[in-house]
Amino acid sequence: MKFYQFTALLTGLLFAGLLASLMAQRLRLANARDELIKREALLSAAVSAPEPAPPAVPAETSLTDAELRELLTLRRDVGRLRQEKAKLAALQAENARLKATVAEAASSTNRVPVPEGYLVASRAKFTGLATPADTLQSFLWSLSHRDTNALFQVLTPDSAKLFAGENVNRLFGTDPASGPALPGFLIKSVEENADGTAVAELQPHPHHPEFTEHVRLERDEQGSWRLSEL
Length: 230
Known about the structure:
Elements: H1 3-11, H2 18-48, H3 65-107, E1 119-120, H4 132-144, H5 148-154, H6 157-161, H7 169-172, E2 184-192, E3 197-203, E4 213-219, E5 225-229
Antiparallel strand pairs: 1-2, 2-3, 3-4, 4-5
């Protein structure tokens, strides 16, 4: 499983690459709207224009069959893009609700508290890479602080290559003001293997222990644990 899938699965809500797709779709929507306005203006003019005097264009002049087909296609595209935009808005709202739930559960005595050991992103620290648990908390800290240098220390070199440049936003999230894409997690278990790898079981949501994810770590020659696959 890839790193962008890890973030999507951990939140249960965001889907990697959807926001980047929306930007392209918005540009296409704008172009489609402009074209639609032009086509509808032509169609309206062709239908409602008064009988012109010669040698003006005859009143029966209208769009060709090809132009009408293109107009219908543009209308369908606009409708589809509006539906996709609405779906994305719903996902963003649900993600914001999840983050708010985690933050309130961690700070309010009137709500069900987070389980013992659940690490909220805002409380995470950069604890180094000496153990798998340290690496996982350092990873959460790097997401919370949007710290690229810290993030690339936590990842293996091969994994870090996947998030060079703008791709790092798949982990950080697109809106810095809304906090990290991952609100926190509970480390339920860590199994270290003789080959220098380890598998950790994480519970992303504080009140849904039935939903867990497994992440893989590797120990390098210096004894540091780094995230490999999530």
